[in-house]
Amino acid sequence: MHKKINIGVVGNGRMAQFHLEVFKNIPNVKVICLSSTRKGSKKRKITANKFNISKSYSCYKRMLIENPNLNAVIIASSLEYNYEIAKFFIINKVSCLVEKPIALDSNNAFQLLQLANKKKVKVFYGLQRRFYSSFVKIKEIQKKNKLNSIFIDAPEHFEMILKKKKFKKKV
Questions:
Q1: For the segment 75-97, what is each residue's pLDDT rounded down to a tens digit?
Q2: φ, ψ dihedrals at 17, nearest 5°
């Protein structure tokens, strides 16, 4: 018999809903808690009821404090908070799947990966669009030119996101 894996989810948007739909069909995975912003409390309650999640929080830090048995967390929050949230869970030795982008710049992404190695936790990031034609083309260019890696340092709708003035600091 496989050990039950306890999962927490940070965020309650479209990507979080996709993950929750998948987890409800995996027998040895249990989503035990959900966290989203205070202003999202009504939607969070609806999601918790829909997916039979017994605990929901407006603070991801409290979510971990009250659920020290978390094995992993899905971070599907607003992109400007991915780095800070992932760093918190990594420091506390909780493995993470972070929806892209893992951070707003390559230095922070590299820092998270170094920290994960130091803390001996797994960190994954969502690449659900890796088969889009634009990404396939980049991969072809990479292979043809024998490049070790390509790092795209901005989300696909970055200009639109900047216009919303969501960031506290200049990006």
A1: 999 888 999 999 999 999 999 99
A2: -60, -40
